[in-house]
Amino acid sequence: MSAPPYGLPRLLPWTGAEGKSCYVLGDGTGPVSRVADAIESVQLGMAGDLLAHADDLLEDRRVTSGELRYLARCLSESLRDVKRVAESRGARAPAAEEVSAHADPSD
Description:
By secondary structure, the protein is mostly helical. It has helices spanning 31-59, 65-92, 96-101, and strands at 10-15, 21-24. The chain has a two-stranded antiparallel ribbon. Helix 1 runs antiparallel to helix 2 (65-92). The longest helix is centred in the middle third of the chain and has 29 residues, at 31-59. The radius of gyration is 19 Å and the shape is elongated.
């Protein structure tokens, strides 16, 4: 089955009204796709920074329960963002059958 001429729907890294998922149709090169790529890159970078901060905070024996709750909230939000990025990218990744069909037999 081939993809439609306008491309497959892409899950965007933000939600719309009432928290509903947003999608864009296209070939992945348009302005909305470029903004989505930039936001995903920022979200993934911030997740890495947050993990480093969490490691430091968890080693500090003087950390308060309020600080730990705030960290947990931030980690939860970041995980939600990263999960959305993974779902979006996974939906756009070629199926294993497609990859093996196009694989170089000399590999």
